[in-house]
Please model this.
Amino acid sequence: MNSCSSGTEDCLYMYIYVPKKRISRYYNFDVVVHMHGGSLVVGSPYENILPDYLMDKNIILVAFNYRLGAAGFFSTGDSVVAGNNGFKDQVLALKWIKENIKEFGGKPSSITITGWSSGGQSVQFHYLSPMSRGLFHRGFSSSGVVTNPDALTLIPKENAKRLAESLNCGSRNTNQMVDCLKRLPIEKLVNTSMAFKPSVEKGIVNGFLPEHPYKLLKDKKVYDVPWVAANVVNESLYSLDSVYNNRSEVFSIYNNWLEWGRVWLDLEEYVEQDKMNDTLNRIKAFYMDSTKLTEQNGLEKLNRLLTDRHFLVGTDLAVRTHAAATRSNVYFYLFKFIPEDRLQFGGPPAASHGVDNKLLFKDRANPNKLQHEGEKMMREFTDFMAEYAMTGIPKIKKNLPPIIRPESCLNILEINSPDDIQPREVTEIAPRAFWNSLPIKENNHLY
Model:
């Protein structure tokens, strides 16, 4: 089946996997819907969401494509092209599932939406969208929340103009610009190197995202059903392959920090230029200068910085504000287990981006059978998903503790191995006070 990033608009396929019992509308299986990751640029269920592990459980698994890149998230920042078409594809899929899953033996009153990376962000976006109300009953976001720095753009109109100019469709008139783009082959739009992100549809009637996600969370405009968020402890190691293979590269990064940092930390859109160098130097001092930089500790320092910036700081904010906004329980687990199977995308063997997701879903890049501890952990995770889908209570050997005092501390579940899974109380998931002190125009710095 085609991915929605492969240059074709014929891509909106749905995959429905049922237990080996005969398909019948008279069964009543709980339903798990999974949204693939891929930075809203690449990915498809065909490649990344194989059902092998979960089909041992009495649940139905559904996955679907949705439009990606410019086809899914191009926006002019107004009613001409409101944007978020990829999310609107997801809403349409959820509506179809609720209306039709009974014909496959599914229970329309028990739908759990799950997602990894940008799919995890998608899940939390559905909690904030009026379009998604009533279409699901609980959710799970792995390695992605709406307060991550890559979850939203504040400048959709500027991004639209840059794309149009690169394709010789530049115009001061938005309608003329869009008409020109519509006449181009779809391949030219989706194969652009520009990344398009979700955007606020302020003032748009029946839009997907009426306000900034942080404002919706603070104003408690959140769909009130349970939510589980999760991260792995070394999310960003996968992106540091070159440093892992050539440890001396860390010195080049350190010596060219002002050039390197603004790009890798995704700061261009969020920090004013006259404050950029000072901001970068403060970050460098906090993460890189606390002890003497060596080839041995350089990879660890860079990973900690990138993991905090791109994942954990946003998660800390998301779970606190989400828990404060709803009466339903909010949960969080931190995954530290390193399977002997190489499940991560790159870098050293580690609890890196995607490892926990690969214990729920096989993918075509890792077709081999899990070994020993990896298989034990896979069984814990498939039990967790089935139990959560059936009861709304998340359990990985032990019940996940709900976050009950988000303003002061966080109750989390720490997963170290199949036999070492412990609840903990922590003051923070990442150094939020430091990041809040920086002039980065995101989330709580906007409202």
User: Anything to note?
Assistant: The mean pLDDT is 91. The CA atoms of residues 178 and 295 lie 50 Å apart. The chain has one domain: 14-238+314-445. Residues 14-238+314-445 form a domain with the Rossmann fold fold (CATH 3.40.50.1820).
